[in-house]
Every structure is written in structure tokens, then in C-alpha cells.
Amino acid sequence: MREYQFYQLDVFTEQAFCGNPLAVFPDATNLSGEEMQTLAREMNLSETVFVLPSGKALRRLRIFTPMRELPLAGHPVVGTWNLLAQLGITQQIENGVIKIEQELKLGVLPVEIEFRDSKPFKVVMTQGKFEASEIVFDQQEIEKLAGGLGLNVSDLNLSENLPVQVVSTGIKALAVPVISLEALSRCRINSSLLSEVYLAHGAVGCYAFTFETKEKSSKVHARFFAPDDGIAEDAATGSAAGSLSGYLVHHEAIADKTFTIEQGDFMKRPSRIFAEVSGEKGNVERVKIGGSSIIVAKGEIFF
Asked: Of 34, 47, 182, 300, which residue is the catalytic one?
């Protein structure tokens, strides 16, 4: 019988039972890819991370949903490096920021870990290159998209600098501007209809957002839906938040380059995602996202 230790964290929050849950196996040595996929299904969270040695970086992270392996994901990276820092895998400092490199399926990407009082407080990851697809949504698709979200077309906040668009910093998401927080709260997805729209454009999910927020310090409130992956709604989606952050600067829809995205409130799991974008309209150079995490459980699995 084999035995592996795992942790569960809540990510993009400083409070237990908020944020986005994550399972992490800090030493996944000798697990096959097939076994990792089986364990991810058993954990039954939006993502599970398996940590391995790396010849290119401090550690290699393999990230799985219950359905498949991902090239990149935000909350798994943020949560995993918070845990690894607590376990002493990284350099330890009292206060300040350390920089390390991680190996993902997408490639080697940098991570920054901020320590406060000798504990990891915030993990910030640099995401992949920002890309925005050509805007090809006609009126019929817009109507189908609104229907997939359970909204009317009039609930969408469409303009020249706020188009419906597939954007990516490693994983493609469909950015959908919504007119108000009240409209966003009314989203009741039609899984098959919504999946049909975003899958047709190569996206993994739909990230609906509004500039109305719960907290004055935040700039955007968003909800992520990926029913084709078995995720009716995600409490915090770092990859989509990074893509949306690049989209907002790319279209000059927001003046700030550093801001907070709210997510998860309508699931009673409030999450706060830090975003930082370098670049300008039409030329996004780099996107970073980050946040805090908290360990909520620890256990062992036998098989």
C-alpha cells in the first residue's frame, strides 16, 4: 500500500472557508500521470496540484482538474507556493519578497513570495504572454451568450472598448462585460448553451464581469463559469483574472495598472485577486496575479 500526504488550502483569501479550495500533494514522487488524474477526481476540487522535483526550477507543478491536466492555473500556483514556503521549501526571510522559478506544463515562470513576520503573506505569479483574439461575435452569438448566462442582451455592457472577446495569458477565457452587479447576480447558466458558445472559440470558460463592486477598494467583480469541465461556477480563477486584467488594459477600459478583482461572493466564498499589468493600450507586456492563502486541512491518502 502506498501513502501520500496532502493539504487543503483556501486561496485568494486570508479567512478559512472563503476563497477557492485547493488540494496539494507536496511530494508526488513516483506518481504517474494517470494516478494523478485519479487522485484529482477523488479530491473532487476544481484543481489539485502535484509537486515534483525539477531540473529547470525550484519545483515542478502538475495541475489537474477532475477531468484533465492544465498548462497553467492561477489559484493552484498561488496556494501551492504559499504551502511550500510554509514547509520550508523556499528561502525563509522575516519580511520582504523572494523570487523563485517554477516549472509548469506551459513552461518556466517566475513567482514572488512576500513574507510578513516570517510567514508567507502573498504569492504573486507572472502569467504567460497576453493574447487577445479577433473580435468575431455577431448579434446571433451575443444573444446565445446572454441566454447561456440566463441574462438579456440589455444586461451586457458592450462597447468598442468593452467587447466580448477570447483572451489568454496561458488559458483562453471568454471575457463578457455585464452592466451591473445586480445583473451579474442574476446569472443562472444554461450549461449546454453557454458551453457551446465559449467552446466554439477555443475558450475553457466564461468570465463575466462588471465595474460595480462590493468593496470600494476593488475595481472589478467577476464570476467564472466552466460547465464543460464540470465547474458550474469557480470561486476564484487566477488564470481568467490575469486574462481579464490584460484585456482591461489592452482596451484602456481601466486607468489603473494595479487593482483588485472580486470573485466568489455569490457562492458565499468571497475571494480577492491582486492584479498587476505592465503595458498600455494595444500593448500588454506582462500580467501578474496574486493573493493570500490559508491551510484548512491536512491528511493522507492510501491506495
From this structure: 47
Q: What is the pLDDT of residues 40-57, one digit of tens each?
A: 999 999 999 999 999 999
262 is catalytic: no
Which one, of 110, 28, 8, 99, lies nearest residue 69 by Cα? 28
Q: Which helix (H) or strand (E) holds 303?
A: none
| 180 vs 188: CA distance, rounded Å | 15
> In angstroms, rounded to a whole number, what is the distance separating the alpha carbons of residues 208 and 261?
12
Domain 131-288 class, CATH top level? alpha beta
pLDDT tens for residues 216-245?
999 999 999 999 988 899 999 999 999 999
pLDDT of residue 250: 97
Tell which CATH classification among 3.40.630.30, 3.40.50.300, 3.10.310.10, 3.30.1120.10 matches the domain 3-127+292-302: 3.10.310.10
Which residue(s) pair with 8 in the sheet?
23, 297
The tally of CA atoms less than 13 A away on the side-chain side of residue 167 is: 27
Q: Can you give the length of the chain in residues?
A: 303
User: Could you give the residue ranges of the DSSP H alpha helices within 127-284?
Assistant: 139-149, 181-185, 191-200, 238-250
pLDDT at 269: 98
DSSP H or E stretch at residue 83: helix 74-86
Taking alpha carbons only, the member of 128, 93, 108 closest to residue 238 is 128
